[in-house]
Amino acid sequence: MAVPNSDTLVFFGATGDLAHKQIFPALQGLVRQEGFDLPIIGVSRDGSLDRRKERAGDSLEHYGPMDREGFQKLMGLLRAAQGDYNDPATFEKLRRELGKAERPLHYLAIHPTMFAKVVEGLAKSGCAANARVVLEKPFGRDLASARELSKILHQYFPEKAIYRIDHYLGKEPVQNILYARFANPLFETVWNRDKVRSIQITMAEDFGVEGRGKFYEEAGAIRDVLQNHMLQVLVSLTMDPHTGSDHELVRDEKARLFKAITPLMPGDVVRGQFEGYLSVPGVSSRSTVETFVAVKVAIDNRRWAGVPIYIRCGKKLPLTSTEVFVEFKRPPRETFGEIVPVLSSHMRMRISPDITISIGLRVKKPGERMAGQDVELTFVRQAADDMPPYQCLLSDAMRGSAELFARERGPVADCRRSSGRRDATLHLRAGAPGGLPAHRQTRPMAQSAASGKQAVMRT
Ligand code: BG6
After folding, report:
1. Most buried one in 75, 135, 243, 327, CB count within 10 A?
2. 88 alpha-carbon distance from chain centroid
3. Are 428 and 222 in contact (CB under 8 A)?
């Protein structure tokens, strides 16, 4: 049966950092490219409608591109509801603003500690009836709190109306990892422990936590990007192909892969903090939250057993680049008596800021000697995503397509193949000196965000 579209888009956190950087450009994209013409209600603690429009303009000037016509149309659709999320009157205002809307979509682009409060406010004011809710990460702090949050949500929303968001799933180059792998059987023949020597996934950012100290204090690099964005990249790279077209089957394959990841031990994790983090507004002067994390992951299945997988992510690093590097095995012996080459043959997939897929090979250097050189051949190159990831996700959520969202399985989930299987959990223990190169800008620190154990890191 066709699922009806939502008829109004409500987003909480309308004056926040996420709205400024990502949501307004996505909304303009929806209006300009997809003919979106439904009411959009921005909810926030402060800011009149005029102030909000001004900020939307600023957002598009900075993170656009600004498209005058699209922007004017967007401003025509934009309305505001203002108030404290702890105050029931805010939700009454929203209810009035919703007018005749029958199936609103509520997108919570807000601090995760407010999720429960806001869904409760939505329910009590009648705004949750026939509605969908979209939530940003981190979804809970650990398995127990994630379950607790699900429980709260299920008091007011059926599972099929809950959309847990990870904007990496809306990214073209992340989707292309899966697509390119499975559309080219050629890759499948080398995509395993027989041919792959190691996998590295790196998300380096040259900026800090600008204006997000309070959020970051509760997230850290692990909850901000590792447990969501990086794991989605990892699973896209390593999962087995799904059969059939039902997107639940894709989720099943992903869960199967996550279950094969062995628990991380202290020696597999390095955490660090950039110099200066402690003076960021909203950050405790004694904070031990990590702004850098590196982990060595092992997947214990027939395809990947024994292949080391390194994931690194951090703020205030020398450059901004997110990429995947799949290193292939070297020849068993050097056929031409060369000293071991610097680079092995490899596949490099750049996710941002530009989008590329390249293959690196060793070929003969022209000349008399049988000497080699490394070449990299790029066969996909895009300056940037044509469609911002949030546009893709919001458009899907408005249409009720659950393809790109995390869904809970089990008795509450509306899915035909649910079973009593264990949840896939990534066990993360105390951070400690590990096998990865330490981050130069880090300083010694202690305390694992995940377990609370003390473990001093060398850098
Ligand atoms: C967000 C994190 O989810 O992803 C940010 O909260 C991070 O800390 C951002 O900078 C990176 O996303 P992108 O799309 O710029 O790679």
Report:
1. 135
2. 32
3. yes
